[in-house]
Every structure is written in structure tokens, then in C-alpha cells.
Amino acid sequence: DERSEVQRQRRGLEEATGRTTNDQQLEELRKALDESKKREQELKRQLADISVRQVPVYEHRDYFERALSDARKRILIISPWIRFEVNGELVHRLRKVLDRKVEIYLGYGIAQEGGYRPGKKGERDRDAERSLKRVADDYPNFHMARFGDTHAKVLVCDSRFAIGPCPNTRVTSA
């Protein structure tokens, strides 16, 4: 039958090449993935060279990471909220940035006082705010102020880049 002839030919090909069709397909997929990764890096480099563009929300975290790693003089962050995602790792990273003598300005708060979510999330938000206040107490180059009336979301790193106004940017960990 025709099906068994195709299977016989496939087995013959596999024996002749010493590889299975699945192995060949896997290798082709790996090559295609490598090419895609190279293309992605090239496109990211091209995007970085554009002086003004709209930055989609999914890129905000990358820019926040970039600000922490690349800032030389100052970082400005304005956010309505400080959420419980501020954790030990982020606090450690902020301290490393501050140790480099970078000035960090954090303006936050949609309400003068309070404005926290109810329940455990709200308590963790308060803990996060207290953690950042301890950093501000330890570093004179960390400036933190509760505005109490902002819904702005802004991130500025030196004269390198500025993002804002941004929908739903928060001070959070990576």
C-alpha cells in the first residue's frame, strides 16, 4: 500500500542520513529561533535610536530596569501608587543605584494620607511605602514625597529618556 511505501522510504532516508525527520525539524526550528532572536535584538537597537515615540505599556518595566542600571545622575519616578511588589530585591537595587551617587526623586500618592487598598494588600502596600522611607532615611540622594493628588505616571532617566504620561506605571520590582 502507498502509506507503507512512504514509511519505508522515510526509514531509508533516516538510515542513509543517520538522522530522523524530527531531528531535522528540531534543528531547523533552532536555527529559525536563533535568527529571530538576532532580528529582535537588531529591532530593539533601532527602537532605542528613535528620539521620540510612543512606548507601549509592556516596555515600561524594561525602561525602569534600564534606568536603574544605566542612570548616571538622576532618576525621576512619579506614580499614584506604591504597591506591595516593592520587595527586598528592588530595595537592594535602589541602594546600589544610590551608592553610585545617582539622585532618585520619587513622587507618589493619589491621596494625601491613606488611599490604601483594603485588607492584606493594603497592609503590604503600607509596608512597601515604609521600606522606601527607610531607604530615604539612609540616603540623602533619595528624595521621596507624597503628593496626595497625582495620577501621573512618569519615568525620567538622566537626559537619556522620559516616559510619560503613562497609563498604569507603578513602582514595582522586576
Describe this structure in words.
Helix content is 50%, strand content 14%. By secondary structure, the chain is α/β, with parallel strands linked by helices. The protein has a five-stranded mixed beta sheet with strand order 3-2-1-4-5, with helices on one face. Strand 1 (74-79), helix 4 (88-99) and strand 2 (103-108) form a beta-alpha-beta unit. The longest helix has 28 residues, at 21-48. The protein is elongated, with a radius of gyration of 25 Å. The mean pLDDT is 82.
Question: What's this, in brief?
Answer:
By secondary structure, this protein is an alpha/beta fold.
Keywords for this entry:
5 helices, five-stranded mixed sheet, 5 strands, 14% strand, 174 residues, alpha/beta
Our count of helices gives: 5
Q: Tell me the fraction of residues in β-strands, as a range.
A: 5-15%
Largest sheet: 5 strands, mixed
- Identify the strand order in the major beta sheet: 3-2-1-4-5
Q: Helices and strands: which structural class?
A: alpha/beta
SSE topology sketch:
Blueprint: H1 2-17, H2 21-48, H3 60-70, E1 74-79, H4 88-99, E2 103-108, H5 119-138, E3 142-146, E4 154-157, E5 161-163
